[in-house]
Amino acid sequence: MHSTMGIGEIRLRDLVRQQLLIFSPDATLRNAMFELNRIGAHAGVVAEQGDLPLGIVTLHDLIDAITFSGASLDDPVFAFMTAAPVTLPVDSAAHRAKIALTRGRVNHLVLVEADGQIFNLLSPADLPGFREGGAEILIQSIELANNVDSMAKATIAVRQRGSELFSNGMGVEALCQWMSGLNDLISMRVIELVADEFDLPPVSWCWMAFGSEGRLEQTFATDQDNGLIFQPENESDTPRIRAALLEFAKVVNKALDHCGFALCRGGIMAGNPSWCLSVEEWQQCYLGWMSTPDPKALLNATIFFDFRPLYGQDELVDDLHHWLLPQPAEHPRFLYAMAEEALTCVPSLGWLGGFTYDGGNRYPHTIDLKKRGSRPFVDAARIWSLKHGIWSTNTSERLRRAGEAMERAATDTIASIEAFDFIQRLRIQRQLAGGDYDEVNRINPKNLSITQRQMLKEAFRQAKSIQLRLRQEFLD
């Protein structure tokens, strides 16, 4: 088995190599150009203090100012900066930076620490494979779409191209994140188009992605898992603001369904009043689930603890994430209950090494690869990331970072990720073959080659191994 680490889930902290340059607003062009040239940098941050970036200045901008605008070398640098730069938390996934650069049509992002301190600048050059797989043309079609029907056509084109890339051997992690990136752009454009039709309340709000979308693990058969977070000026305004946002969210959900993102069977959508909440209400939800880990809370935990911002004021979701990170470790009973629930989902491998089947009379001799294959890895990665306060939501990255925190043998972590990758590849192959909602994740091992059957058994053994570690850690 081979596992390729997709660029999408690598932390931005680990990608930036340029030395950080911060210029005071009154620094001269002469000084700025000298410093940029001294370290071979193309850009720097303009700021009066370390936690308040005012703008970005590039060597190209300064040369243009002197050459074409008649600027003096003694002019202040703030007069030639690009103000109000886009910022991202430094521990965000690279996927998010790719979306921000594409949507904002900007060449640099300012990365900030949790306390707001400037970490560094990031440019497209720091992101390998920034526009891989023919994404450029697809991005253009998404940006030019001006109605939902056009967006639906763009979605079909993305899936067709994704199928081609998969058939040509693109790695599963890379493919899922390639598709997640384009799906994000589609969803963001749909939200934008619908928002133009509504007179939305003047509050900060953000559309959130949960579940497989939140983990950057969307495949070819996916439904919606989303919600809204908003910040009322007064909590007493919450019902009125929710009512206004719900009408907008319902139309977005319907439009996304038209574009091929099926409505969630369980109603986990922003158009559901239960998941269109103020910041305080979301915090109360998470505290409630952790304080009283009943079956419903544990079901919600498998979806709502894998979240990320999609469209709107990202800082609302980032702040919620920062608030949540230390909480699970303070609720060991919740983590225990999550581990106990995760262990009820047994990989489809019997004691004697043969496959076990769960399809019943309707789907005889079949295995649900989502529930009995990939889920054990997803669940374990989530539990460990919550215990150790890990920012990432992607399963493979969670396993990597949790493995480091737990001092797990690197070979064991690699084996887990490769096993998860192989099962995901089989799931995608099955989904591309078609079928109804309940069968697209099912396989009959007899339809696999001998080598594939052996590899699937090994993947299930890895799932059992990861569950044994969970049991020893939380239940024994």
Please write out the topology.
Elements lengths: L21 E2 L5 H11 L3 E5 L5 E6 H10 L13 E2 L3 E3 L4 H11 L4 E4 L5 E5 L12 H10 L3 H20 L4 H24 L8 E6 L1 H4 L11 E6 L6 H21 L17 E3 H13 L3 H10 L3 E5 L1 H11 L7 H11 L24 E2 L1 H18 L7 H12 L3 H23 L9 E2 L6 H25 L2
Pfam family, one: DUF294_C
Keywords: CBS domain
Protein name: Signal transduction protein
Give your account of this protein's structure.
A four-stranded mixed sheet has the order 1-2-3-4. It has a four-stranded mixed sheet with strand order 10-9-8-11, sandwiched between helices. It is built from 16 helices and 13 strands. It folds into three domains: 7-126, CBS-domain, CATH 3.10.580; 135-324, Beta Polymerase, domain 2 (2-Layer Sandwich), CATH 3.30.460.10; 332-474, Four Helix Bundle (Hemerythrin (Met), subunit A) (Up-down Bundle), CATH 1.20.120. It has helices at residues 29-39, 59-68, 94-104, 135-144, 148-167, 172-195, 211-214, 238-258, 279-291, 295-304, 314-324, 332-342, 370-387, 395-406, 410-432, 450-474, and strands at 22-23, 43-47, 53-58, 82-83, 87-89, 109-112, 118-122, 204-209, 226-231, 276-278, 308-312, 367-368, 442-443. 42% of the residues are buried.
